[in-house]
Recover the amino acids of this structure.
DNA sequence: GTGGTCTAGACCACG
DNA sequence: GTGGTCTAGACCACT
């Protein structure tokens, strides 16, 4: 389900967070689904348990997953789109910088549009 | 010209790099233009000279600027878009992840499209 | 393994870079091998950690080594010879200049040929 | 006769030194020939006079040129191949490092041999 | 414990 | 005056 790139510059815990988000967004994980335990996950990903724990904490902090003591961790019922102003501004700024990078690599709006279309096809299934 | 956000999680030197890229892409800095000296820049940004130097070296590595010994630093003549496969793939993946984030924040394709249009208006001037 | 010449005109960090390249080329360091940590290396070479770090970063930029957060630095799996046109031209020009120097020192082609043979013997082992 | 690359990483004065050496080695400049004055040279190369002066000093230090007060500077009669042990060792070490670089760029002995042959053709004319 | 970033302050080569 | 290198010492994020 998840693939960790050991040598990526994005931290492993962040890769887990992002991977989970994507799985949920694409519907592979649905509200109420049970997540593998920290130990299981760390075993399958060949990753330090602390790292998985940190990822889960991050996800919980954003209300994306919930832990029920003794039962396990589950995808939260309402992944309420927070629309928090701060995070939104961060997103906007990231996108801005990404477009600058694209400009320097000779990647035009059409290409980005194409990438976008391709991505949203994967979501609407 | 450049604004540094102290508490940002993106390193200062990286902010300088990104800022310069944007200034060049927007045409505020043109090929052959002289950049402020390391010491000047460090004074105006209230940042350590080493930090500015690191940013300049990074920019030079990408062929975006060039330094002439004892004379100063200048915007390179042809920032030839390398179209390097590796960096391109990185960009693509960043965009992918950005769209995941957008999905969780309830930001749809239309909004992103709007941001994109706005950005490219700033370039074509 | 590495020897630093304090008074050399080539910077210390560059000497480290070159030394590591040689060790790898000769097979003393193989893909996947762990490099000494920045702190270790700085201790054994009697050099500032920042200097070692700079060398490691340079090596990483060329894809020769890779760092895993919190784990350490490793020799990259496939130091794919980029065959980048620019670096190749630089090499050629360096060699050209070296031959000029040789001419002035009375070193003829035969001597250079001999050096070359000796070097490649060290590699093919 | 000489071409200066403004943005090269090798200092301008060094480029002049190397260029003169090459001209002499190839026979374009012969013992006894008069060199352009510092002012002339600085004018034609569009370079700071101090820079040319430094190059001339360097060349004189190695006994390659000689200045006669009031008359000008001339190519020395006997560009005696000093065979100084120290410089020779430096050359050898430079060549060694060059071969390491070549190895990483995928440049084999044959290619280097070819470069060498080509160079020596230019000399023997 | 690992590397990454930053500061402060110093010296040097180049033009 | 310009950038390049180096040191010393500090804090932080990641595992």
């Amino acid at each position: 389900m998840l693939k960790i790139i050991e040598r990526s510059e994005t931290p492993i815990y962040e890769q887990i967070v992002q991977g989970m988000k994507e799985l949920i967004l694409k519907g592979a994980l649905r509200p109420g689904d049970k997540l593998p335990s920290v130990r299981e996950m760390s075993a399958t990903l060949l990753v330090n348990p602390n790292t998985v724990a940190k990822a889960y904490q991050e996800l919980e902090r954003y209300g994306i997953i919930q832990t029920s003591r003794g039962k396990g961790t589950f995808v939260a019922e309402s992944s309420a789109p927070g629309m928090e102003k701060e995070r939104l501004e961060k997103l906007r700024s990231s996108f801005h910088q990404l477009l600058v990078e694209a400009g320097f690599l000779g990647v035009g709006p059409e290409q980005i549009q194409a990438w976008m279309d391709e991505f949203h096809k994967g979501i609407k299934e």
